[in-house]
Amino acid sequence: MSGPSTNAPAAAPPSGPLWTGVLLSLGAGACYGMLGVLAKLAYAQGMTEMELLPVRFVFATGLLLGFLLLRSPRLLRVRAGTLARCAGLGLGLFCVQSTLFFKSLALLPASTAILIIYCSPVGITLGAAAFFGLRPGRAVRAALVAVTAGCALVCYDAFTRAAPWQGLVLAGAAMALWCVYALALQVVLRNEHPLTVTFYVFAATALGFLVIGEPSVLLRLTAPRLVIGVLIGLVPTVLALGLLFTAIERIGSAHASLFASVEPVATTIAAWALLDESVAWLQALGAACILAGVALPTLAPALGRRFAASRERTGLSRT
């Protein structure tokens, strides 16, 4: 998994109706949420992790290349230093993180794996505090507590279902590496267009899996495998990214990231509908805690301003 707001610009001014941005953001989160479900469908077709990963990133790179050529070819220009850093992210962190996540999907329900990955805001916030001088406010600290509680509930539910401990370890390691990837990406994105960085990270990742994976699968894809390969390259990667960036252009990054946080809920619903995975009440409660934790830092400032304005109108503000 990957979280949908990681590659987004820091800010963008609203430039359109709110409801269109909300729909675009919800679509981005839903698309990202299909990653685990599509991987499970690929496994059901007999594909292994090291067959699926080259297929996913080769198709994703090709589709994103076509998108950039149509939208703005100048975004393919890249400085040598940026290209080297993107190669490091793709060949190093993203290859390993994706491998761990897909291997965890072979052992865990898709909803459990994605919910564990979605505990990454805790690690990312702590890392940003340690390396970038971020000082979390009360809302962020409360969000960390909510996300941690959600993670604990999801893991407890997994243990009560006797989920393989190897799958939990793999998903936890994938989550930790995603935190490192997100923090490193924050550095690489400075003075670079996010779509440019995303394309070259995808290209490097595809190259890595063509070397360490089983690229021969690309020459012997059956019709069902081909459909799944195109979908997994398009839906939870290129399409999700395109929807998210369009939403940011319409309503700004804060609101877009908030509404795109439906990803774990989308995975849980899709896994229930398409894979017949059961949803326990602890799992649902954990998902609610994680979503509340993700939403709280965005909602709290707006609610605080509204409360302050209400106090001023009623004459209750301090003088």
Q: Could you outline the blueprint of secondary structure elements for this entry?
A:
Blueprint: H1 18-33, H2 35-44, H3 49-71, H4 80-105, H5 110-117, H6 120-131, H7 138-160, H8 165-188, H9 194-212, H10 223-251, H11 253-259, H12 263-274, H13 281-313
Helix pairs in contact: 1-10, 1-11, 1-12, 2-10, 3-9, 3-10, 4-8, 4-9, 5-8, 5-12, 6-8, 7-13, 10-11
Main sheet overview: none
End-to-end distance: 49 Å
* Coarse shape: globular
Structurally, how many domains make up the residues? 1
> Total number of helical segments?
13
If you compute it from the alpha carbons, what radius of gyration comes out, rounded to the nearest whole angstrom? 20 Å
Structural class: mainly alpha
% residues in beta strands = under 5%
Number of strands: 0
Mean pLDDT: 78
Parts with pLDDT < 50 across at least 5 consecutive residues: 1-15
> What percent of the residues sit in helical stretches (DSSP H or I)?
over 70%
Can you summarize this structure?
The protein is 76% helix and 0% strand.
Overall description:
- This protein has 319 residues and is mostly helical.
- The chain has one domain (18-313).
- Helix content is 76%, strand content 0%.
- The chain has 13 helices and no strands.
- It has helices at 18-33, 35-44, 49-71, 80-105, 110-117, 120-131, 138-160, 165-188, 194-212, 223-251, 253-259, 263-274, 281-313.
- Helix 2 (35-44) runs antiparallel to helix 10 (223-251), helix 3 (49-71) runs antiparallel to helix 9 and helix 4 (80-105) packs antiparallel against helix 8.
- The protein starts with 17 loop residues before the first helix and ends in a 6-residue tail after the last helix.
- 47% of the residues are buried.
